Batch of 3 targets.
Target 1
Amino acid sequence: MKKNNVYILEDRGLLYVSGEECKEFLQNIVTNNINKVDEKNSCYSALLTPQGKYLYDFNILKHKSGYFLDCEKKNIDNLFNQLKLYKLRSKVEILNLSNEFVIAVISKERFLDMENSSSIAGSTIKFREDSIFLDPRNIELGARIVTNLEKLYLSLKKLGLQSADKKEYYKLSHKIGIPQNNSDKLQNKLFGIECNFDELNAIDFKKGCYVGQENTARIKLKDKLNKRLLPIEIIEGDLEDDIISYEEYEVGKVLIKDDYPFAIIKIKNEKFDFDKIFACGSAKIKVKKPDWIKIT
């Protein structure tokens, strides 16, 4: 990621959750601690099924008297409807502002040149009333600008940034080992904690109850995390099948194909090793180990 590049992510959407009880509403359902979020800090979080399976993931950013949820745009309507189901009689308003606001990404280095910035994941500052926050998942993903569409290009001009192909950014995200595309392919397919949410700062195990908390805590405390979502590299052929195998043994399954593939891998299977080349139908693949992940 070049220092003065900016990547405009039109494929991200924004929900705005506000109202008298918005903080308590989010605190009771999302995996992270909403008390961490203020004008100087943002967080990464998720919404799970009651059984602890993955549904949606998003960044949470303080905005005026409420909170922005930065989510993949293709999921925004379904996330909106899911939140409405939990709203019941809460004094909460939920708005889809995806057509009014946009997400853009700048490099970590450019962010750290800005006044009041910090190298702490989630660090949040203001620039011309726009919020900019260092990615709370991994600071190597740079910082995200949340701005009104009408102000976007003026803000980028004042920052001296040059627009670059967002594929460059998503390629980096895949290399780091963090999925951001086609997350709908993960829904109900794996537990949230299998998405590496612990290492990506998405779960607060001390906050108390949230949707899916019981199974998430059980897997963590009893060391039952036997599978993980990991990036894969295609060595040869095309991903025409889902099952990943070594000899006749299944070691995983591809969940996200397309340009930035990810698979759920049985990391404790005796046949699994990061140094091996695996078969996936007629394709040959390798499973990549992100630098930040802890696998014993």
Target 2
Amino acid sequence: MRLIVNVDNNWGIGLKNKLLVRIPNDMKFFRSQTIGKVIVMGRNTLESFPQGQPLAGRTNIVLTRNMAYKVNGATVVHSIEELLEELKKYADDDIYIVGGETIYRQMLPYCSKAHVTKVDHSYEADAHFPNLDEEPAWKQVEESEEQTYFDLEYVFTTYEKE
């Protein structure tokens, strides 16, 4: 299982259920990695997507405690156990955890690879991703050349669980 995330210098990922920054190349990378794959998210993450709809060309799975929650075009599960059972239907390498903070934290132990876009800026954030540089089980194995978007600098990194 993999995860994909965009973080700032403090490993912040969001503010008020919105991304901290939208970088076209990062969005393109997200699409290239997840198209045709399974994406797992919480309800708030789904609702932050355009029109609050599942992303096309992917199998969308939403984890929520709200038992009445339903959404067209997505499978809805209500516990980690139910999610793990649902994920057995898919190849491990085809599954991507895409947020938010709670889902990332709950699913990190099940992941073996993390695609982390690191933006060299500190934003105000109310949602954070665990700092993989401080997690002994995780090691950064790749880093792209530095990219720029207007005045922002960022790199694409890959971490693997040892």
Target 3
Amino acid sequence: MRFQRLLLEAGSSTVTLDLHPRLTVVAGLGRMERESLVTELLGGLGASRPGTHVEVVEDTGRRLGVIHPAHGGRDRVMDLASNDDVTEEFAGENGSVNLLQALGFDVGSLRRRCRMGSHDMATGAVVDSTVATLAGCDPEELWTAAEAVQVCDAVLKAEVAAIGGDPEDASLVEEVERRHAAFEAAQERLEYVRHHGIFIGGACVLAAMPAALIQHWASIPLLAVAIVTTLVSIAYRRRMEKTRKAERRVLEQAGAKSYLAFRIQRMNAVFDGGADRTRLALAADEHRRALAAWRQLAGEVSVDLAFDLRDRVEAAARRIREAGGRGVATAAASAEPTELAQALMVRMNELRHAGSSGESFPLLLDEPLQGIAPSVKHWVLELVGRSAGTPQIVYLTDDPEVAAWARAEAVWGELSVLEPAPA
């Protein structure tokens, strides 16, 4: 299976992404944008995701259109060649349309299989270093913190689902809430400063008038205080505008023009029950706290990777205790080009026959070469360019070097480049 087209409805606007059958490089995407695009691509194949429509080509050559109406209505699957409705072929027990269920996946398991980031490109040497780092932590604190992150993540997703959102959007919803809270705090600080600044500045200006009549230099300190209060107020206003722009950027990623529109879109009960927002905010705050506690112990190691390596970490911790606490290696090893290539080829081989019926799935590369030396990066990019096609590869990046390489290669028609441009 490969993606042919993704259509996203946001209000009266529709965004269309045409994907190359071999390799598409989508450049200029930050972390949140990459997260959102992965969610839309894979979520469009799963259960109802209003406003997301995906066109795919099966390995047999059949072209399917998966339609999730934005404003209610029945989800459908159409055979685009014959224009026949083949929804029944992919309908679940409850009547919902789900291509992934028919192929033995859900969105979460497919995301883990199809998405490959810089952590997934980790080689054996990097994994060994990760094991050694985790083994040096207090085991009780380490796994308690890891389990707390998992529990908080599940609670956050449950709260998002309870208000009618998609659990896969939990990180995006959390980011919106965090940005909005920062904006509200900046607004409150600005109002406080303006209120007191107007009073102090006005009093100083009024006092400066008679002082200037008596002796002109006596008014200078008073005018200086008025100027300082004005400058402080301007600084706080600029800070508030900065947080407002940050909130708008993340709201645009969520497909909303304002926070109120986001609340109406994602949280239908905003006017009926403020408890929804309170529970979601508390869940998001607990998730942030748990993640901060985990990172303080384990650094940037993901919780999922830690659990995958748990047996090796515990065995290494036992060896360290038996050795009296000596021999913990903490320096991360650099990945060799051949090891990066091996990790890439292994993942591509897994995806060639990943479905229960042997169906292939696209590989979504999410900034996989972050922190890699330029010479190694270009070598791996050439490998990606030569190997793409079986399976299809969608490369999501914010790296100017990758974008420049893709633009040069696109001349030959072997790949396409998509770059966001201002409207």
